[in-house]
Amino acid sequence: GDFAKAHEFLSLGCFCGVARSLQALGLKTLAYPFDWTRAPVEGVIQCLDRRFEDFLTFTMATQPASVKQPVFVSARWGGSFWHHDPSSPSVAADFQRRAERFLGLREIPVDKPRIFVRAVNSTAELGAEPKLLAALRRALPRCHIRLLVLVDFQQHSGPRFYAGHSSEELLYYFVPRDVFELPSGHGQAGAAAGGQPWTMERHAEAYAAAIAFACRYWSGQEGVPEALTSFGSFADLEASVEQWDGGSTANEMFYPRRFQGSRL
Hints:
The chain has one domain. About 30% of the residues lie in helices and about 20% in strands. The protein is built from 8 helices and 12 strands. Strands 1-6-7-9-8-10 form a 6-stranded mixed β-sheet, with helices on both faces. Strand 6, helix 5 and strand 7 form a beta-alpha-beta unit. Helix 3 runs parallel beside helix 5. The chain is globular. It holds the Pfam family DUF1796.
């Protein structure tokens, strides 16, 4: 709709599922640095504050059994490259353009409103999202910015916000955990996915539903705000979350696993 056309949508990782969901919704025509990488929230903030200076760094190339191409791991900012060779001059030139585009230095006007979408890599990072929003504003001081934060693997799904941060600027969306649980009658799909009941398509569809909700909410469509769950504080929001970690952004693919063990 008109709201979507008036905004530029950008993925902040933590993996390529966000970019795929934006593509599926027709909201993504241009490439940005975090589309196809693994990215920790602190690393995204570092890249913004250093204007992507360290972005193409890595320590080594590895060949995991699960992927066909080499993976370039342990970037100085904590991410990894699963679809690109950052040592290639043509790839470096591509990422230079993507970084400039991110910072408002290319074809998208610097004052065009932007909606950033971040899928958390771990529920431990939830408290960092206001810092991420602040870093985005430092990097792009001339445009209106909103941040949608996707939290996977939740029994109780739907949109959330907490007092102290307006839902007009920072919105959380809890994604249902059945994305990672096989529906009955789909036995072969689990086997095809290496025993894991998950497909990128299903995951991107779940993200797309969250992004579509955020667009309806932020565009002021009638009846939408009633669907929001509000919390009095960040601590209350955090206490409602089913806790998990998605693996190391430096050298592992994204897959959420519940924290085990007991609290002291």
